[in-house]
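Report of the visiting student (M.T.), summer placement. My assignment was to run the structure pipeline on a short list of targets and document each run. The first record concerns Glycosyltransferase family protein.
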Amino acid sequence: MNLCIVQARMGSNRLPGKVMKELNDIPMILYTLNRLKRSNFIDCLVLATSTLPEDDVLAERVQREGFEVFRGHGANVLKRYADCCREYGGTIVVRVTGDCPLIDPSMIDYALLYRRMHDLDYASTQSIRGLDTEVMTAAALFLAEEKADEDKYTEHVTSYMYTHPRLFKVGHAPLGEAYQKPYRLCVDEEADFEVVKRVISALGEMHCSDLEVIRYLDAHPDLASYNRHVKQKKLGE
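After the run finished, the structure tokens were exported:
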């Protein structure tokens, strides 16, 4: 079973409550989940949040909209993923973060197919930040949980896999030049949210493709560079 786990919490350090900020009158987390529903190969879609009281409002809203919710460890996100996988019985796990509302379900499907074709333990699409995804076997997830002993691994779920290629068969699905541009479409800071909000407002359609998004940014370089100063956290930070 292909299990897609979307991680999200209310306690973001840089932009608290970001996953409940609204895009076209819809909380960002629901925008993300509704786009993912259109995947052809996801069998089960679950929000994985923490058991902390601050995340009650997130869990309740998502459940009210009919989505599955798993609640687990707050800081150890790797354990949260592994426990969620055990709960739902996934054999293949897709990792998505709830701050990527423009993730294209076709990219998920591509990653799943690529992993299967090459019999990989872990596969990623190294795309524009916010349009990328990762896929792994449940066995790889559980092995990483067993072996990982540093925060830089337990906080980032897949980092142990791609930094230990002797233990895991790792691959990266090739993508065209359109996906290699220096745009940011994940929401870490207010500037990121502004970019995503303007793109969504301009395109109008919730289910626009990632290529439509890229073409819009190509045509609006001022917007595309609006959040270029935001730095992605590095492993271990």
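The chain has one domain: 2-177. The chain has a mean pLDDT of 95. I thank the supervising group for their guidance throughout the placement.
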